[in-house]
Specification:
With 416 residues, the chain is α/β, with parallel strands linked by helices. It is built from 13 helices and 14 strands. It binds pyridoxal-5'-phosphate.
């Protein structure tokens, strides 16, 4: 095996530069000094408002609101949906910590729902959790871009009168059966944080077709009484009852970030294809390798894979640590959702100590085996093939060493 000698030397956290036309636009905004979205001169439409109109058109929604972060978008959407203090909100047990964080920030109580081996919400468990918790709100996280059967999910939620808010931090540009991710529920929420599909450092977007929801979200985001500066927002009369009864929880997007996002939005479709090509190059090396399970992706799932996940199905936690260190020595930094302590961005639900600890053995069995890796566009397709080959070699070598007992020899020599 030739890949045995090779090591990967790239960086898993290095994104592409901001496009030059975005830098040029940002420079103009900086020179103008009018960075605040409501600071416009006669006849000028703010960059933030232009971004909202462009993202609304891209999504095919009625309305769009740009805000300070993806987490803020989630909190705002929950509040604007009318979440009552102390009530239960369903969400995926496999997600990123800002998701349960948003529920708690909005005054809700997270009720976690199991994840399947294909890394989507378990609809049977969702049905049980709806019945037992009485929750009428689901914050559905398309975690790492895996999209559940949205038709089945919406049938269940509509039947049970459960309102759906979609966390599309990893599905901007993706669709289910031709319908864009974020267009199924009351609202879709997006992040433009550096590691997502558009990069403004921090930032968020909310889309919806519901005028009252969007009016509340707009006031919540800190629009003061300048809601008529939102061409992608609902008409002014919708605000009449809402403007004085909704608090200002300041979290706007500014013109500088909006200016660097607009040119990136124009490239989103092309970049989604580039991510998927990278995903396919890694997946080709991992397909049909004993001990590796790639999530099944149904034909209706038009995914955007800016990262890849797989289960090391035959390794137990001790040997997974060996596997990860083999990969690490060859330059492939994998994240593992089975670690007992949260590391960097990765945490499992047991680490969210501010919520009642549930017992979810089905989810635990998945997370214990789950490895995860970003696929930045700075990787070439050859890089991705090499990374895939290194992972395959390391899984096979770790499996062999279990059979040989070599791992145990390693352990006693204190050299894992
Ligand atoms: C990044 C992320 C968020 C939150 O986005 P921020 O912009 O970092 O606040 C929410 N959900 C998921 C699944 C994410 O990965």
């Amino acid at each position: 095996m030739k890949s045995m000698e090779l090591t990967f030397t790239g960086s898993f956290t290095q994104q592409e530069p901001i496009p030059s036309e975005a830098i040029a636009r940002a420079t103009e905004v900086l020179q103008g000094g009018r960075l605040h979205r409501y600071n416009t001169v006669e006849g000028e439409t703010a960059e933030a408002a232009l971004l909202e109109s462009e993202f609304r058109d891209y999504m095919g929604s009625r309305y769009c609101l740009a805000v300070a972060s993806g987490g803020y978008a989630l909190t705002t959407a929950l509040r604007a949906s009318g979440l009552q203090q102390g009530t239960a909100v369903l969400t995926n047990a496999f997600t990123l910590s800002p998701v349960p964080g948003a529920i708690v920030a909005a005054g809700g109580k997270p009720v976690l729902v199991d994840v399947t081996e294909d890394l989507v919400i378990d609809l049977n468990h969702l049905s049980i959790q709806i019945a037992t918790s009485g929750a009428r709100l689901l914050l559905l996280s398309h975690m790492r871009g895996h999209i559940v059967d949205m038709e089945a999910l919406m049938v269940l939620c509509n039947r049970e009168s459960v309102t759906v808010i979609e966390d599309c931090a990893h599905t901007m540009g993706a669709a289910w059966n031709g319908v864009k991710s974020g267009r199924f529920g009351l609202a879709g929420c997006y992040s433009t944080q550096t590691y997502k599909h558009l990069n403004s450092g921090e930032g968020g977007l909310i889309v919806s077709d519901d005028p009252k929801f969007m009016a509340r979200a707009t006031i919540l985001s800190g629009s003061y009484m300048l809601y008529d500066h939102h061409p992608a927002g609902p008409p002014a009369e919708i605000f009449t009852d809402i403007r004085l009864s909704t608090p200002n929880c300041s979290g706007r997007m500014d013109n500088l970030r909006a200016s660097i996002l607009r040119p990136q939005l124009a490239r989103l479709g092309a970049n989604c294809a580039r991510w998927n090509a990278r995903y396919c190059a890694v997946a080709a090396e991992l397909n049909n390798v004993p001990g590796i399970r790639l999530p099944q992706r149904p034909e209706k799932e038009q995914f955007v894979a800016s990262s890849i996940q797989f289960l090391v199905s035959e390794l137990d936690p001790a040997t997974i640590t060996d596997f990860l260190s083999h990969c690490g020595k060859r330059g492939v930094e994998l994240k593992w959702f089975g670690a007992s302590e949260p590391i960097a961005f990765t945490s499992r639900y047991q680490s969210w100590g501010y919520i009642d600890p549930p017992s979810l053995p089905t989810t635990d069995a998945v997370l214990d085996k789950l490895c995860d890796m970003r696929l930045p566009l700075t990787f070439s397709l050859d890089d991705c093939s090499l990374i895939g080959a290194i992972i395959r070699d390391c899984v096979l070598a770790t499996r062999e060493s279990i059979v040989d007992g070599a791992i145990h020899v390693d352990k006693s020599s204190g050299d894992p």
